[in-house]
Amino acid sequence: MRKRSLIAGAALALALPFAACGDEESGRISGNDPELVAKADFIQAANAACEKRREEIANKGRRIFAKHSDQPDSPQARRELIEKAIAPGFEAEIRDLRALEPPAGEEEEVEEVITAIEEMVARTREDLAEDRSYPYRRTENIAAAYGLPDCGTP
Question: What is the mean pLDDT of residues 76-98?
Fold first, then answer.
């Protein structure tokens, strides 16, 4: 019995160094790759910050719509929503994303997400309270493509 447990222990010891390695055929990713870990950490932190910001925008939006309950779709209500909830929320999101260190070698991709959010905020402010189609689609697509589905969306 002792001999069998020694063999099993030796087999386990030999297998452990390979347990976290990726398998290209199966598509599994290595848990030991520092670049992948750094990207995963960045994505997790960025999505958490964006989710928090989305909740803040939603809370402010509910208060604004309650205030304008008689005409929630009026130009005045839309203007207030943009000025007091959406634009400041996205500006906070931009600051939060800039405060995070992007993964090495992915600075341009992260900057593309941030730039898309900045451009969307500028467009939203310019079109203030105009009745227009959903202005976030492009930003949402760019952010989601990088792995940040919680960013760039109200």
Answer: 93
113 is written with which tokens? 């997400």
Query: What's the DSSP call for residue 29?
Result: P
User: Taking the alpha carbons of 90, 95, 100, 103 in that order, is the dihedral positive or negative?
Assistant: positive
pTM of the model: 0.72
Judged by DSSP in three states, 37 sits in helix
**Four-point Cα dihedral 133, 135, 140, 143, nearest 10:** 160
CA distance 113 to 105: 15
pLDDT number for residue 32: 61
What pLDDT is recorded for position 23? 39
* CA 38 vs CA 27, 31, 55: distances in Å: 19, 11, 26
